[in-house]
Amino acid sequence: MNDIKTLGEFIIERQKEFNDADGNLSKLLSSIKLATKIVNREVSKAGLVDILGTAGEENIQGEEQQKLDVFANSRFIEALRTRKVVCGVASEENDDFIAFDKDCYDGKYVVLMDPLDGSSNIDVNVSIGTIFSVYKRVSPIGGPVQLEDFLQPGINQVAAGYVLYGSSTMLVYTTGCGVNGFTIDPSLGTLYLSHPNMTAPKEGKIYSVNEANYNSFTPGLKEYINYCRDSEVKKPYTARYIGSLIADFHRNLVKGGVYMYPQTASAPNGKLRLLYESNPLAFIIEQAGGKASDGKQRIMEIEPTELHQRSPLIIGSANMVDKVLSYTKN
Ligand code: P6P
Fold first, then answer.
1. What does the pLDDT look like over 29-47, one tens digit per residue?
2. Among 100, 117, 167, 310, which has the minimal tally of Cβ within 10 Å of its Cβ?
3. How close is the Cα of 149 to the center of ligand 1, in Å?
4. pLDDT tens digits for 235-278?
5. Is 186 a residue whose pLDDT tops 70?
6. Rounded to the nearest whole angstrom, what is the distance from the C-alpha of residue 128 to the centroid of ligand 1?
7. 61 CB less than 6 Å from ligand 1?
8. CA-CA distance, 37 to 147, in Å (whole number)?
9. Which of 232, 231, 252, 253 is nearest to 241 (CA)?
10. How many other CB atoms are there within 10 angstroms of residue 108's CB atom?
């Protein structure tokens, strides 16, 4: 038991790795830890209480907001607000960014998040996830957060992570010094270091894409899918598509694989959101030795222009991403 380490101990221990270890990023990560536990408690009993069903409103995606979406969004926002190290938050569930008030003007960081991705799976008990991305603000400290603080390329991220509410609940994150995974012990509600120094296998046998969109894929991507289906391939591939980004991403990170959400007829720029889905996962996968591209360029080098802009996404094992690009870039 002596090498068991909690997330709290880990954050403090690794604080010296941050270039300005004034403890503020540690406070921010601790607030995410708290919100994770609160949301996990509700997600784990979603089927037992009347928290399912829609809140009756629609988010910017035009999707009905599930009550759990609304609950998760408010808990993460409140947890980030109280520590006063964050000056504002952008969320998939809010059309505009949320500017925290005066007592947070000295906050050095902004957070972008998808508080509960895959929420359409809640009612059928499929794993869902939270995704977050952290930047240092670029506007002057002491004043209100500005839109420019959120519209930064992914290479500027100082931290990124996700929570997977699955058969067990895990928090996986990076601050630019590798990727580490923590699992909740439900009997204590404590997050323990369960997956130190996570690395993505360079190769894998799993490809994840919604093949119902095949007819609207580019010729190059169709060729790649046909290559995966080709029984002549020495190590045959298998298709796995859970329909919950974090579940597919996490499996590919652990076992090796590639996830693709390309442009389709109904989503000409792809479906996933650059700032709070593609960028944080790109930071994590690159820290784990994998790759993330929009089909033309490195995801983290895209210069954002809008808060909720979408990007095609090809992400996972380095050699598998390269293989997809060898077909799609022609
Ligand atoms: P489709 C869920 O809505 C989500 O954002 C991701 O979690 C998931 O990978 C994708 O969309 C599924 O989209 O169009 O294949 O149903």
1. 999 999 999 999 988 876 6
2. 167
3. 27
4. 789 999 999 999 999 999 999 999 999 999 999 999 999 999 99
5. yes
6. 11
7. no
8. 30
9. 252
10. 17
Question: Shortest CA distance to 16 belongs to which of 26, 6, 7?
Answer: 26
Interatomic CA distance for residues 227 and 212, integer angstroms:
17
**Residue indicated by tokens 């925290």:** 100
Mean pLDDT for the chain overall? 92
Look at the block and give the residue holding tokens 């090498």: 3
Q: What is the pLDDT of residue 120?
A: 82
Asked if pLDDT for residue 52 goes beyond 60, the answer is no
Dig out the tokens for 177 from the structure: 């010094």
Query: Would the CB of 114 count as within 6 Å of ligand 1?
Result: no
What amino acid occupies position 288? A
244 lines ligand 1 (CB under 6 A): yes
Beta bridge partners of 58: 64
Task: Give dist(CA 270, CA 175) in Å, integer.
Answer: 27
Three-state DSSP at 197 gives: coil
Distance between CA atoms of 289 and 202, rounded to whole angstroms? 8
Mean pLDDT of 195-219: 97
H-helix or E-strand containing 114?
strand 109-117
CA distance 301 to 166: 31
243 lines ligand 1 (CB under 6 A): yes
Domains of the chain by start residue, with CATH: 7-195 (3.30.540.10), 206-328 (3.40.190.80)
